[in-house]
């Protein structure tokens, strides 16, 4: 990153994403980024982040409202709150003059999403959305190949998001994103990345969407005989259950899912969290309602068709794809960092893009680098700015509407109806 000074920033939401993905960047590159304030309702998380970054007590806030009631504290603001707490602070922060890096999804609500994009354009503020996959080397190599038309004109694609089963049960059965009424639908919360990638890679807006999906397995009627409300309540099948909280959060190795359960890495802290907190509940007896599998069919305005699948029943977390063109096909596997090109003339090649440091194929660090460059240069049109991200979010909202109603959704009509209903 070409730089001339250190950017000062504030963080709203000091959970895992705020602390680990973006806070770590500042700790490793203090000459580029320094956090000077934090807002977080959980005192333990707030104090942990403040101690890591040397933030004084007078710049530690219990809510985003308190932080944004102050005169503008710095140039940049990172919003890493829960889904339903993105819109309020983002809108107020733009009025205050902040440039913003906003965690996805932009909002749980379609109209709020459109309003955020419009506000960013009107205010002239940077509003970059954390679609980190756009930034990693693997995705950019795939984009280069498709744009170069090495397989001719693109005709159709298959794309799958394989959510590692431990990730699924931790985040979407027991965890913060288990209930759409408290967070957002699965297709928006988890797979807005995929809708964004498809829009970007295909290079056209989506015209129509149909979708099917259900919460099929993680329901009380599927609980094994002898199971209990909690894994620590004497469950008869706990020792053999792949979803056991004791197995996944207590005995897990350093760096595993236990750090979502307890900030303290001790065994005592983990067990207390399992016995008392949401992560110790039986996966068949939670208040979860988001789907555990979903398919989406998409038609883009350039006539490209796509079949997308999300499943929470995967032995590894990865994305796989096949892009089919008039002269060949491109296959890929993100975890293997492998792209395979098969030409119809018989030629074959395998490509292994450079590997960048950091999570999401290096995307977490690379989006920070790009965002800081935007702040330094005043460039409001980033790779995943609000106007671009809002369009791909609409695909996810349309897919959920189709899943619930059973209707094919036409995007232009859908967006118009959202605006019209707001006026009424």
TrEMBL record:
* Source species, domain of life: Bacteria
The GFO/IDH/MocA-like oxidoreductase domain extends over 141-331
Pfam families from the UniProt entry: GFO_IDH_MocA, GFO_IDH_MocA_C3
Extract the InterPro entries matched here: Gfo/Idh/MocA-like_OxRdtase_N, Gfo/Idh/MocA_Oxidoreductases, GFO_IDH_MocA-like_dom, NAD(P)-bd_dom_sf
Transmembrane portions of the chain: none
Report the GO molecular function annotations.
Answer: nucleotide binding
Which SUPFAM superfamilies does this UniProt record tie to the protein?
Glyceraldehyde-3-phosphate dehydrogenase-like, C-terminal domain (SSF55347), NAD(P)-binding Rossmann-fold domains (SSF51735)
The UniProt record lists the Gfo/Idh/MocA-like oxidoreductase N-terminal domain at 8-130
The name this protein carries in UniProt is: Gfo/Idh/MocA family oxidoreductase
Organism from which the protein derives = Cohnella zeiphila
């Amino acid at each position: 990153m070409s730089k001339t000074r250190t950017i000062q920033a504030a963080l709203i939401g000091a959970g895992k994403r705020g602390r680990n993905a973006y806070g770590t960047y500042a700790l490793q590159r203090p000459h580029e980024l320094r956090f000077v304030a934090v807002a977080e309702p959980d005192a333990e998380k707030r104090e942990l982040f403040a101690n890591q970054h040397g933030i004084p007590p007078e710049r530690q806030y219990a809510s985003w409202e308190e932080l944004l009631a102050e005169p503008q504290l710095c140039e940049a603001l990172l919003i890493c709150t829960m889904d339903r707490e993105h819109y309020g602070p983002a809108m107020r922060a733009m009025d205050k003059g902040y440039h913003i890096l906003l965690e996805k999804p932009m909002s749980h609500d379609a109209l709020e999403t459109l309003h955020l994009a419009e506000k960013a354009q009107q205010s002239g503020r940077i509003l970059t959305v954390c679609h980190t996959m756009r930034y990693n080397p693997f995705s950019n190599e795939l984009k280069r190949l498709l744009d170069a038309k090495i397989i001719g004109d693109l005709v159709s694609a298959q794309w799958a998001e394989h959510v590692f089963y431990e990730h699924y049960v931790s985040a979407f059965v027991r965890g913060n994103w288990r209930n759409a009424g408290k967070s957002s639908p699965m297709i928006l919360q988890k797979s807005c990345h995929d809708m964004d990638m498809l829009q970007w890679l295909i290079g056209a807006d989506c015209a129509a969407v149909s979708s099917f999906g259900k919460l099929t397995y993680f329901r009380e009627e599927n609980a094994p005989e002898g199971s209990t409300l909690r894994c620590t309540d004497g469950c008869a099948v706990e020792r053999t259950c792949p979803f056991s909280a004791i197995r996944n959060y207590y005995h897990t190795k350093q760096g595993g899912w236990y750090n979502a359960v307890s900030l303290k890495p001790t065994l005592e802290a983990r067990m207390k969290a399992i016995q008392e907190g949401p992560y110790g509940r039986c996966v068949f007896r939670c208040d979860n309602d988001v789907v555990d599998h979903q398919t989406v069919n998409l038609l883009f305005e350039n006539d490209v068709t796509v079949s997308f699948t999300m499943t929470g029943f995967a032995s590894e977390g990865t994305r796989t794809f096949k892009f089919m063109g008039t002269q060949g096909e491109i296959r890929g596997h993100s975890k293997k960092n492998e792209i395979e090109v098969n030409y119809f003339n018989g030629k074959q090649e395998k490509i292994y893009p450079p590997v960048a440091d950091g999570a999401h194929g290096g995307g977490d660090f690379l989006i920070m680098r790009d965002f800081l460059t935007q702040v330094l240069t005043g460039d409001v049109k980033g790779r995943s700015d609000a106007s671009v991200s809002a369009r791909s979010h609409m695909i996810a909202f349309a897919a959920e509407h189709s899943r619930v109603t059973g209707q094919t959704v036409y995007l232009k009509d859908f967006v118009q109806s959202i605006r019209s209903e707001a006026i009424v």
